[in-house]
Amino acid sequence: MNISSTKPISAFSAAAAGARLGPVKIERRPVGPRDVLIEIDYCGVCHSDLHMANNDWGMSAFPMVPGHEIIGRVVSTGAEVSDLAVGKRVGVGCLVDSCRQCEACEDHLEQYCAKGFTLTYSSPTKDPGELTFGGYSKQIVVDRNYVVMVPENLDPAAASPLLCAGITTYSPLTHWKVGPGMTVGVIGLGGLGHMGVKFAHALGARVVMITTSPQKGEDARRLGADEVLVSTDAQAMAAWASKFDFLLNTIPVPHDFNVYMTLLKRDSTMCIVGAIGPIAALNTAPLIMGRRNVAGSLIGGLKETQEMLDFAGVHNITADVEVIEVAAINEAYVRMQRSDVKYRFVLDLATLS
Length: 353
Ligand SMILES: NC(=O)c1ccc[n+]([C@@H]2O[C@H](COP(=O)([O-])OP(=O)(O)OC[C@H]3O[C@@H](n4cnc5c(N)ncnc54)[C@H](OP(=O)(O)O)[C@@H]3O)[C@@H](O)[C@H]2O)c1
Ligand SMILES: [Zn+2]
Ligand SMILES: [Zn+2]
Description:
Radius of gyration: 20 Å
Bound molecules: NADP nicotinamide-adenine-dinucleotide phosphate, zinc ion
């Protein structure tokens, strides 16, 4: 399929919801004065890519070139971009534009833009193709304001998941001031969860991995967890009741919240980042009896994404990745659905000709 005909760029695309992804040619807009042309080296594979490719959230537009954990090198810049030299290692995350005027944008929280931000893929745009196309492609053109700098000491493949999984966990952990003296539970050891464990550990908290997979316990400890709690073990869960200062919930499917709420101390918060839609029955008793809170959090703004990358650079934090060729993406989606990835797939764009 040819999404556009001029200046073709190789990409991988899904033609419709649930369709297998395959090779296509796309076109990017010409580099404008504030734009950066990036040669993409690696792109992480987020569970949101799978949700979007399956249209789980009813907001997907096709053809879709997924990918919002983008790491590459600057190829060229527009005349007004003075701080990004050619060859510089840069990243692009989940959003490539926002209104730049609303309160959220002024507060550097573009992900909560009142007018709605532009997703890196599957959003309407004036660019060729009329939809944004993401990082499962060789090149991308992005406004400088939405490009972040990646510390050169980080391995680029392993750093790519920082652009979504990293910031989505770092943002709530720092918003809720996770640090020394706190006991933090990270629920779900997948792409987000393993980054959550690493960041919570680096921030100085005592970290408990809360998992449905006892066999992941050893990995969890290696990643920085001090303890492992198997959520299907009712006795163990009861022993941890009212012990947590903060819970970060990354489960990607609807589930029973109530079993986790009772783990919180009085006045503490469980933050939901797994995008799960409506929940059936939230028992208000643990909320009322312990003045506990349920909250949500969406990725992070550009300023805190840069801060997260700088923190990752200083602490040498990257993802544990399985680097795969682009043509293996359909198999990767199947494995991700089975929670069978350690702990993030990353596409090597050099394998796309
Ligand atoms: N809020 C945001 O801004 C944001 C950003 C990015 C992604 N997301 C969403 O966050 C979710 C997680 O993404 P991800 O990339 O980390 O996914 P992932 O790599 O597939 O990991 C999810 C983990 O959740 C656990 N899990 C899976 N099914 C479960 C079930 N039925 N019950 C309990 N636990 C289960 C598994 O860990 P264990 O084996 O350890 O139990 C699994 O490894 C997705 O829904 C994604 O769309 C949200
Ligand atoms: Zn993501
Ligand atoms: Zn805005």
